[in-house]
User: Fold this.
Amino acid sequence: MTAATVLSAGRRAWVLVLVAALVGTACGGGDDDGEAGLSATTTSTDAATSETTAGGAANEPAPLDGIELTLTPVMEADRPMALVDRPGSSTLYLAERAGRVRPVTDMTVGDPVLDISDMVVTDSERGLLDIEFSRDGGTLYVSYSLAPDGDTRVVAYTMDGDAVDAGSRRELLAVDQPFPNHNGGDVEIGPDGYLYMGLGDGGSAGDPMGNGQDTDALLGKLLRFDPSAPAGGKQYGIPADNPFADGGGAPEVWSYGLRNPWRYTFDPAAGDLWIADVGQNQWEEVDMLPAASGAGRAANLGWAEMEGTHPYQGGSPPEGAVAPVFEYSHDEGCSITGGVVYRGNGIPGLTGTYLFTDYCQGRIRGIRVDGGQVSEQKVFDAEGENLVSFGVDTAGEVYVLSLDGPIYRLDPA
Assistant:
């Protein structure tokens, strides 16, 4: 199944044909679609209690059934991929797929502060895939597909005021990509201050190279490293508590058994790790890895033995595998776009809800987890086309990016 078979024809169809797999749209096939399902097998913090939001106020969650949302267009960009805040600054920064980073002030998109379009390839799932700032706001991390072969690169730039010092470029990570899909590309600073990097299994279909379960491979993993402490001939250091820091696997590996963790996030209040892992033939999944249990340290998410909670190449989950907390079938969508846990003040009843969407289906969805079980879920009426990413501003308010160009703010309806 491809995204082009799900959405309507016309302009949307050619965009999807070009980039249908950008967020890992299901490829390969042959299996019959199954029915939608739920699985709640991990433990978690209680998202149904009152929380302190990014704005400092304590908000009481309300039942999701009583909340209505809308997507309000606030700006336009050229194939936007990421919108991030910078610590210590009111300016947001926008990444465009072609290789440009632009400042955003008062919902006005400015001229590029970084343009690496001559280094970036944008076919299939590739391009400038994500950006992130260090905790002090002094360093910009950029994840992109290097022209002409599309191999993964993560580089660091020093900030010079509100601008980027292009001459400070430092290459942190270089990973060969055997295929142009399932490249991942998300970079995030965790609650511990380390840089996390999500990499898909390398592409094609069905993980033909077996990367998901191979702990010596970097593909099909969530990586964790310290870009501020180069060591051992590399431009980063390995935290001592990484599960394979002393052997048994690649020292950068934090979690494994992932197909394409296109977008993942840390809950800014609880520290839990939420991963939206794009499915293969039938199932899209959300993995929730509680901070209290290590936030995914050494977690095996099951791919390619499992697709969600369902056997794929194996008859049963790998020993010790962590099942998704939520899954849905391709009857409801075909390529999950991971989002964020809401901690803003604009929609106080939404506090603690994990928000996400589907690239093919385009409606905003939300789930709450209580004691390792999905306690509430809702598919909201808020809807857009080709939704590829989420962003959060300094106040904790949420934005949703469409690859077609619009950037929306999530508002109460």
Notes: Confidence is low (pLDDT under 50) at residues 1-50. The CA atoms of residues 3 and 87 lie 36 Å apart. The chain has one helix and 29 strands. The longest strand covers residues 163-175.
